[in-house]
Amino acid sequence: MNRTSEFFRSFKNVFSALVIPVALIVSFFIFYLIMGDPANFQGNNPENSPLPGNFLGIIYKGGIIVPILMCLLLTVITFSIERWLTLNKAAGKGSVLKFIQNIKLMLTRNHISEALLLCDKQRGSVANVVKSAMNKYEEMEKEAGMTKEQKILAIQKEVEEATALELPSMEQNLIILATISSIATLMGLLGTVIGMIRAFAALAHAGAPDSVALATGISEALINTAFGIATAALAVIFYNFYTTKIDKLLHSIDEAGFSIVQTFGQRH
Q: Which of 42, 63, 80, 100 has the fewest CB atoms inside 10 Å of its own CB, making it the most exposed?
């Protein structure tokens, strides 16, 4: 079991390290070969304006920052899916709320063995912490060389240590979503500024003001801002959603741990 857990932990670490490079490669592939397809532009030339209403060609004109923003967007989507699967696994097979209620019921009836079987059936991070606490509960019942207060502290410490072991797997990759939520908008603004510099420089070389060319250049530059804001918004939404989900799981763990400690204190 430990080897299996270690394997999946190593796999997750490798997966996390490869997501961004792979997303960057895919983004440049899409940008140059799909969005930059000559068929999307007038005269079959990517240097010309995109065909009217051709969305791929319009995005391509956003410039070199576009594939970087696409990479950030793909990273957000990938890690959001990964976090969804991981946190659902951490919650276990059934309802966490019902599981905690059943654990409390087992404790009031002093059915420790049944509570342990319930943990094995539920699985997940919450069940793992509760099972560790229940095992410590049984151990402290048989311990004769400790005071009641020492035994209670030992159970509390076991809950804290078990929670500390499960928490990193639940919070993994959330820092990436938080970082992207901060830098995506900035990258979009950078692309817009670069695009506007390019547009004004082209007008300066043309020698005569051209409002149509200027408007086209600015609209193409603003693609980066729109892309960056959309990516940042998704990252913020998913980050807040998953941190809230983790907080609920931790609250369930705390509730179960308090019930275990309280029951031990009442019975001994």
A: 42
Domain positions in the chain are: 1-268
Residues 175 and 192: their CA atoms lie apart, in Å, by 26
The one-letter code for the residue type at 253 is I
Q: What DSSP element (H or E) covers 98? A: helix 96-108
CA distance 256 to 167: 16
Amino acid at 135: N
**Phi and psi angles of residue 234, each rounded to the nearest 5 degrees, phi first:** -60, -45
pLDDT per residue over 148-158, tens digit each? 889 889 999 99
Range 207-217 burial, b when 16+ CB lie within 10 A, else e: eeeeeeebeeb
What is the rounded distance in angstroms from the CA atom of residue 59 to the CA atom of residue 62? 5
In one-letter notation, the amino acid at residue 15 is F
C-alpha to C-alpha distances, 263 to 141, 246, 255, nearest whole angstrom: 12, 26, 12
**Model pTM?**
0.85
